[in-house]
Amino acid sequence: MSAAKRIALVSGGNRGIGYEICRQLAKHGLFVVLTARDAAKGKAAVKALHQEGFELEFHRLDVTSCRSIRACVAAVAERRGRIDVLVNNAGILADLRGSRFLDSKLETYRDTLEANLFGPLQLAQAVIPVMKAHRYGRIVNLSSGLGQLSEMGAGTPAYRISKTALNALTRILSAEFKDNNILVNAMCPGWTRTGMGGESAPRTPEQAADTAQWLATLPDDGPSGGFFRDRKAISW
Ligand SMILES: NC(=O)c1ccc[n+]([C@@H]2O[C@H](COP(=O)([O-])OP(=O)(O)OC[C@H]3O[C@@H](n4cnc5c(N)ncnc54)[C@H](OP(=O)(O)O)[C@@H]3O)[C@@H](O)[C@H]2O)c1
Questions:
Q1: Is the CB of 120 inside a 6 Å radius of any atom of ligand 1?
Q2: In CATH, which of 3.40.640.10, 3.30.470.10, 3.40.50.720, 1.10.10.10 is domain 3-233?
Q3: What does pTM read for this prediction?
Q4: N or C: which end of the chain has fewer CB within 10 A?
Q5: Do the beta carbons of residue 13 and residue 42 sit within 8 Å?
Q6: For the segment 186-207, what is each residue's pLDDT rounded down to a tens digit?
Q7: pLDDT < 70 regions, the chain
């Protein structure tokens, strides 16, 4: 099948890095399903990309809702017949700025894991059977250098733990589904100017999205089970 007909589902596509990933995948010739938890924001994002001449559609998706995940994946699979690419981009940084271990409440850990780990996990559970049926899949998990065990330090504990766990999920999925031509990788976009990254971040969403676009369109003999920044492997 040509890359032009591949279907990509991106979570949190209404703004920030997710929006730019949708843009770059559409530019690359994929049919993109831009998802967002807020329908008005998601539709506005799709409209802006249509005005740039890209082909894509909106579907509502809240990654903290099992029901929303199931409904979204079922609707896309039925309408489009397949889902070739899943980009787990949606995420939250719920730790208060500068927060240390004793500052963060259990609720913060739970909320963070719900969005940053259980969201991608449940999406993978729903999408992988569709990918397996077509013997093709690319899953890209938006992780963070803050989740690297090799660099682990103090601060933002809930966020760090959620991204380390997402990295573990990446390795498990890669090991289980590589033989089905489903390649699963994690990436760090770098510190990027978005709602989450803030104004002082040095990188643009365009720079951040490039590695996601690359991993989403890997050839069959491409890497799986890796952690990348700027298209280069980094330590776990
Ligand atoms: N920016 C950085 O410096 C940086 C660095 C390392 C890693 N990352 C990772 O890169 C990814 C994108 O980050 P970003 O900087 O673009 O963040 P952002 O500007 O805060 O955007 C986050 C996106 O996730 C969506 N989202 C949050 N909770 C959701 C939910 N329950 N269901 C569906 N969508 C949800 C948001 O939707 P709403 O608009 O509705 O809130 C928004 O579209 C995240 O996974 C983040 O952890 C970012």
A1: no
A2: 3.40.50.720
A3: 0.98
A4: N
A5: yes
A6: 999 999 999 999 999 999 999 9
A7: 1-4
